Amino acid sequence: MASYHGSSHPEPAKMEQIITEIFPKSLHIILESRCPYVSSRNYSGEQGFSSPSPSSSSSSSSSVRPRDKWFNLALKDCPAALENIDFWRQSNYDPMVVDVVLVKRSSDWDPSICSPRKVELGKNFPGKDNFLWNSEHDEFEGGVKKEKIIERWIVQYEGRKTNSNAGSPVGKKSSSTSSSTVYKKSILLLRSLYVMVKLLPAYRLFRDLMSSAQIRMYNLCHRIHSFVEPFTRREEAEMQKFVFTPVDTSCGRLCLSVMYRPSVSDVSSEPSTPLSPQFIPDYVGSPLADRLKRFPSVPVPQSSPSYPYGRRHSWSYDVYQPSPSSGIPSPSPTYSESCATISQSRTKCLPPPYVVQQAADETPQLYEKNTGFHEYWPSPTFSPSPSPPTHIPSSPLSKVLLRSESAPHSQLVCKLSGIPSPPLRFVRPNSYKLDGRSGLLQTSSAAAKLSPYEKDEGGKSPRAKISSTSSPQRSFSRSPGRLSFHDDYDEFSGPFVVDDDEVTDLGSRPGSSDLQERHSCMEEPGGVFPHKKSQDAAVGALICMLKKAPPLGVDIADSVHTSQTSKSEASRNFKDPNQTAAMSGKQSARSLTSSRLLPSKTTAAALEELREFSKMKSEIMKQGKRGM
Amino acid sequence: MNCEVCQLKELEVEHFQIREVLRCILHTILFHRALGLVKPKDIDLELFDITYVQCGDVELERKIEEKIDLFIDRVEKHPNKKNQICLSFYEVKNRQATWFTNKVERLYWEQWYINLYVVQHPKPQHGKSHHSKILVDPGESMSEERTARRAALESSLREILFHIIKFVNEKKDHVPPIPNLDGISFPYEITISSSSDSAFGMDMLKRMLQTGHPTMLS
């Protein structure tokens, strides 16, 4: 009995004290391990008197805090519990219901809100003069939150009168209800309560909230009532109950019970425990990993050992992996290279500075747009057959392109497209445009060279990856592509958009700086890019080019200025000795239309050009003869 | 005085798990029997996702570690035997000095039996051949097995902790009055026995455990 202080009091008073004290003590035990404000885990053993409870009903005073002396259990400070303790001292015959609530944030979370700190939801207290119970604040206000009661602790003193139907053999032996025995049993009850609190699944959530520096998507809070809010039938079915053996007293019994969810992992969105090494095999066996395993079986010529694979989003590149190999018959290092930058830039998700500069207003959306892009792509997992990639990307891609086309920024970029600075050309919307052009160009056999763009400029921006990845669209049906790019062409080169032939013209036109720059872009990598075009096609293209060469002669300036697309002027072109082939009026008109855009040239420049052309022609002729 | 006996369900553990499992069980029991003033210490197991409570008594911790060392020693000497560790609580009664005896009598009032079966699992490379898939992918299936075993042991261990809580709750009358304010209020002893020779006894215990009743002898 030495442990029981206040032994000078008469028996009933002692009993009442024990009953009174068990409420705050059990509340303290529970909240200490459920309320993530105070860590009960970094216990140093030194307890300060920072917040002594002045109203403690314990009469004894010693070096040990009176609060700790009760039930011989020293607990750490827990403000949440201390705030409520006195109330329960005054009303010990009310049940104390402690609900532990898991509050889960939805996606639009704010880190400052989710920081692990105590959240005590305000609760009106009916029957207690509307006693406002720690109506501290609802810190989750403004965000969508999901609450779920994961534990309900009920501490209750059942007086003798009320427990007539309980049927418990109260007071069988007088010795079993002496205050010392009750006290001892209360100690035992609280010991097992203490262990139980650590054993239930909610403790893991608490532990994670306390231990990790990361911001969690959930928090724990608690509500204290003096009545039981009934659960729904479904909620009740989900919960398990553990009833602690009541402690019989001389005039009633102390009851303690807990209802808890046996599994809280499904409630919390994230793993409640750090992944232990044992879980990794499962992870490897996951569909994602399977994809990685399956990958080498795909006949990809450029699957170099160092093939970089973004772990998370790797599936999205897979779409493209087979397509370059099948769509473009040559193993082009270009593709693997651009893929490397893709995976890098995707994982990092950092737009390069120039993108920020150029598309400052768009940058915040970058990530989301990318995600949308990802989502758009059908996961190859669902297309089990290695069907020609022609069909897989076609429709989603066109959707994506259409969508991005509508971005307000595309217009600006289109206008900038003439500037030969590669990064500028590869800001995303522009890249689509280029893709579109290439998609159109590749249809004409003369100029199926689009990858040089990626080679030159790919990987310089996260957008570039889109252009490079979408280049396999060479195989996608042309009509949607043209539809989607129509606006673009209207913007910057309207006249050329009418026909495929004209697009070819655009590419082969050696006039304007804009076109010339493009032309060189197309021309120069012809050797590098090992795509074999047919000899005849090449010859045809060159002849076509020569046919449409700008008129020479002294009156070129005139032709430029007065070129109102008159037939007479067109006929004048026929006088040119180098224009051997017959040319239709339509064609000449077109050439004039384009030449109108050109700056006037000197005769020397024209002659230089002519010489180049004749040289090329003779070369082609030689090649053609060899081919024959 | 009654001596309550609690037989805890047998656990199949691997050698490296012995220490943590024993620590967890012994400390949990002792926390429930340390009725003096204690400052509880929460300990997270390293191998399992379980937190148990210690009394925060250095001397007790030392003694438990000692006994666990002894137990592991015995397991190494007698492999493939069912080993038992018994935690007993007693009261000391000075018997009236008779002619030759002036000894202190121990009155046991509670005994906890912890049954461990230490299994020797083969290393992955010499995998058991009873699974055909082991041949296909030994490493993976072995680690899967291992994970499953660990999870099973974790839930069994948790079950045992619940069992201890239940036992403590249900049986309170036999606990002697709290003698002092010291944390470890009652004297206790930890004994180790190898029960492989008494196969009959183990069978008995198993049958008793299967019926689900807490074994109680008096």
Automatic annotation (TrEMBL), chain A:
<dbReference type="GO" id="GO:0034497">
    <property type="term" value="P:protein localization to phagophore assembly site"/>
</dbReference>
<dbReference type="GO" id="GO:0005829">
    <property type="term" value="C:cytosol"/>
</dbReference>
<feature type="region of interest" description="Disordered">
    <location>
        <begin position="560"/>
        <end position="599"/>
    </location>
</feature>
<feature type="compositionally biased region" description="Polar residues">
    <location>
        <begin position="576"/>
        <end position="599"/>
    </location>
</feature>
<dbReference type="GO" id="GO:0034727">
    <property type="term" value="P:piecemeal microautophagy of the nucleus"/>
</dbReference>
<feature type="domain" description="Autophagy-related protein 13 N-terminal">
    <location>
        <begin position="19"/>
        <end position="263"/>
    </location>
</feature>
<feature type="region of interest" description="Disordered">
    <location>
        <begin position="496"/>
        <end position="521"/>
    </location>
</feature>
<feature type="compositionally biased region" description="Low complexity">
    <location>
        <begin position="467"/>
        <end position="480"/>
    </location>
</feature>
<dbReference type="InterPro" id="IPR018731">
    <property type="entry name" value="Atg13_N"/>
</dbReference>
<dbReference type="GO" id="GO:1990316">
    <property type="term" value="C:Atg1/ULK1 kinase complex"/>
</dbReference>
<dbReference type="InterPro" id="IPR036570">
    <property type="entry name" value="HORMA_dom_sf"/>
</dbReference>
<dbReference type="Pfam" id="PF10033">
    <property type="entry name" value="ATG13"/>
</dbReference>
<protein>
    <recommendedName>
        <fullName>Autophagy-related protein 13 N-terminal domain-containing protein</fullName>
    </recommendedName>
</protein>
<dbReference type="GO" id="GO:0000407">
    <property type="term" value="C:phagophore assembly site"/>
</dbReference>
<dbReference type="GO" id="GO:0000423">
    <property type="term" value="P:mitophagy"/>
</dbReference>
<feature type="region of interest" description="Disordered">
    <location>
        <begin position="443"/>
        <end position="484"/>
    </location>
</feature>
<keyword id="KW-0072">Autophagy</keyword>
<dbReference type="InterPro" id="IPR040182">
    <property type="entry name" value="ATG13"/>
</dbReference>
UniProtKB/TrEMBL annotation, chain B:
<dbReference type="InterPro" id="IPR012445">
    <property type="entry name" value="ATG101"/>
</dbReference>
<dbReference type="GO" id="GO:0000045">
    <property type="term" value="P:autophagosome assembly"/>
</dbReference>
<keyword id="KW-0072">Autophagy</keyword>
<dbReference type="GO" id="GO:0019901">
    <property type="term" value="F:protein kinase binding"/>
</dbReference>
<comment type="similarity">
    <text>Belongs to the ATG101 family.</text>
</comment>
<protein>
    <recommendedName>
        <fullName>Autophagy-related protein 101</fullName>
    </recommendedName>
</protein>
<dbReference type="Pfam" id="PF07855">
    <property type="entry name" value="ATG101"/>
</dbReference>
<dbReference type="GO" id="GO:0000407">
    <property type="term" value="C:phagophore assembly site"/>
</dbReference>
<dbReference type="GO" id="GO:1990316">
    <property type="term" value="C:Atg1/ULK1 kinase complex"/>
</dbReference>
